[in-house]
Amino acid sequence: MATHGHARQISAIEQLVSRVGWLEQRRFARDLAGFGLTPPQFFVLRSIAQHGEHATMGTLAYDTLQHCATMTGIVDRLLKMGLVQRRRAEKDRRQVLVELTSAGRDLLDKVRGCRDSHLLATLTQLSSPDGKELMRLLRLYLVAFQTQYEDADRGGFHQPIESDGAAGR
Q: How many structural domains are present in the chain?
């Protein structure tokens, strides 16, 4: 049974994690809206970039925690925006591959630049040792989280935790 002080600490951590998550989620959605994207569209673009010309609809659905039918709608909208193109796999014509267009790559780079500058503006408020300590603690928290949940290997959790802060980009 948790002591009163331990319960207060757990409550404070929960509130801080929730608040940081909520504020970053709002900033992320606002950043994406400035580029005419929704969060699911961005995550699909990012997944396509990570897989290169081998991104199947199933892979994209898995990576972004979407159903295949939902993925079809997202890709259809990205196609209409000129950000992706679809083609049939040469070895298995039933398989649909999705690739970024040059416009899609350019937009993804612009979004990343915007996100990087916003995060940098926040992190410059921390001293260098505090920034390194934050990274260390976030990695530890993520590893502890991953070990507790079966689904932790889905939706980006399976991506390596990089030491240079580029994870999830």
A: 1
